[in-house]
Design brief:
Elements lengths: L4 H10 L3 E6 L4 H12 L3 E7 L1 H10 L7 E4 L3 H13 L5 E4 L4 H8 L13 E8 L6 E4 L9 H17 L6 E5 L10 H14 L7 E6 L1 H5 L1 H6 L12 E3 L3 H14 L2 E8 L5 E2 L7 H16 L1
Parallel strand pairs: 1-2, 1-4, 2-3, 4-11, 6-9, 7-8, 7-9
Antiparallel strand pairs: 5-6, 5-10, 10-11
Helix pairs in contact: 1-11, 2-11, 4-5
This protein binds dephospho coenzyme A (COD).
The site of dephospho coenzyme A has 14 residues, from helix 5.
Length: 299
C-alpha cells in the first residue's frame, strides 16, 4: 500500500512519461507543476489554450518543457481539443488549467467525444497530514453536487477501485455525517447507515464501510473510543465519503488552507485519469495529482 507521496512519485516514475493534455495551460502554477513532472520523467505535456499567453508565460518563467502547444481561442474549444486528444488516444491523461470547473467537466461528459466510462465520474482528493499515518481519500468534494444513495454507491465503487490500484486491498470507508447515530431527519445519516448495510450484505464489495461517523470518529481512535463506538473503520478510515459537494469541498479546503499537508486531486471513472485541482492549489499539489493519475493510468 502506498503510504506517502514520495512512494507515489517513485511508482509514477517507474511507468515512464505519460502524455498529459492540459486545458487552458496559461497558468503559472500548472506550468510549474509540469516543470517538475517533466524533470521527474513522469509527464510529456501538450499545452492547449491561448498560444501566445502560454508562450509568454513559459518565457517569463524561463521554462523549456519540450511541449507541443496547440492554440484555442476559447476555453470551451481548448477543453474540446484536449478531451479529443485523450479520447483519440494521443494523450494518456487530461489536466485542468485556468478554466472554470463546469466548462472543463462538461467537455469531459460530452456524449459524442467525451471520456465517460463508468456509470458515474467522481472526484477524489488525497491528503497526507502529519497526524495521520496514511494517505486518506476524500470523495466527492469536486464533481457530484447532491448525490442520492445510488450515486453514493457509485462514488464509493470508484473510490474502492482507486484504492485497490494504489495497493490497498480492503480500504476502510467512513461515511461522514454530523453525528454517529441515525437521525431520520438527517438524510446523510440514513444514507450512511444504508451504505454500511449494503457493504455487509455484499452489495458493495472489496472494502469495509461504516457510518454514520463524525469526522473525528472516522480519523481518531481516541475520539471513537471516547464515544464508545466499536467499529473496524472508526479511527482508521482510508476513505471519507462526504454527503455532498458543499461538505466535501469545505473539508478539502479547510485541510488545504489550515494545515501542513500534502495533497492531490483527480476525477475517476473516466476513460483516462483526469487531474482536477482547485485554482488555488499549489504546484506541488498539482504535481502530486499528475503522479497519482500516472500510477492509476498504468494499472
Ligand atoms: N458522471 C457521469 N455522467 C454525468 C455526471 C457524472 N458525475 N454528471 C452528469 N452526468 C451526465 C448526466 O447523466 C447527463 O447525461 C449529462 O451528463 C448532463 O447532466 P447534467 O445536466 O446534470 O450535468 P451538467 O452538464 O449540467 O453538469 C455536470 C457538472 C459535472 C458540470 C455539474 O454537476 C457541476 O458543475 N458539478 C460541480 C463542479 C464544480 O463546480 N466543482 C467545484 C469544485 S472544484
Amino acid at each position: 500500500m502506498i503510504k506517502n507521496f514520495q512512494e507515489l512519485v517513485i511508482q509514477a516514475k517507474e511507468g515512464g512519461r505519460r502524455k498529459v493534455a492540459v486545458v487552458c495551460a496559461h497558468d503559472k502554477e500548472v506550468l510549474l507543476s509540469l516543470k517538475r513532472a517533466v524533470r521527474e520523467e513522469i509527464a510529456q505535456p501538450i499545452l492547449i489554450g491561448k498560444g501566445e499567453e502560454i508562450r509568454s508565460l513559459l518565457k517569463e518563467l524561463d521554462l523549456d518543457l519540450g511541449a507541443e502547444i496547440i492554440n484555442a481561442d476559447t476555453d470551451s474549444e481548448a477543453a474540446e481539443l484536449a478531451v479529443k486528444k485523450v479520447s483519440g488516444g494521443d494523450a494518456n491523461m487530461l489536466m485542468k488549467g485556468l478554466v472554470a470547473t463546469p466548462t472543463f467537466l462538461k467537455a469531459v461528459l460530452n456524449k459524442e467525444w467525451g471520456l465517460r466510462k463508468a456509470p458515474l465520474l467522481s472526484h477524489i482528493g488525497f491528503f497526507k497530514v502529519d497526524r495521520y499515518d496514511r494517505i486518506f481519500h476524500l470523495t466527492d468534494g469536486g464533481m457530484n453536487m447532491y448525490p442520492d444513495i445510488q450515486q453514493k454507491k457509485l462514488i464509493l465503487e470508484n473510490a474502492v477501485e482507486v484504492a485497490h490500484k494504489l495497493g490497498n486491498e480492503c480500504p476502510k470507508i467512513a461515511c461522514v455525517a454530523a453525528i454517529e447515530l441515525v437521525n431520520p431527519d438527517m438524510q446523510a445519516t440514513i444514507d450512511a447507515a444504508m451504505l454500511s448495510k449494503m457493504q455487509q450484505r455484499g452489495q458493495i464489495k472489496g472494502c469495509l464501510i461504516d457510518g454514520p461517523l463524525g469526522l473525528d470518529n472516522a480519523v481518531s481512535e481516541e475520539s471513537a473510543k471516547h464515544k464508545g463506538i466499536k467499529s473496524e473503520v472508526a479511527g482508521k478510515a482510508d476513505i471519507l465519503l462526504t454527503s455532498d459537494i458543499d461538505s466535501g469541498n469545505a473539508i478539502y479546503k479547510t485541510i488545504a488552507f489550515f494545515t501542513e499537508m500534502e495533497s492531490a486531486g483527480i476525477i475517476v471513472g473516466a476513460a483516462a485519469p483526469i487531474i482536477l485541482t482547485s485554482r488555488a492549489d499549489t504546484p506541488e499539489t498539482k504535481f502530486h495529482s499528475i503522479a497519482i493519475a500516472s500510477v492509476i493510468s498504468q494499472r
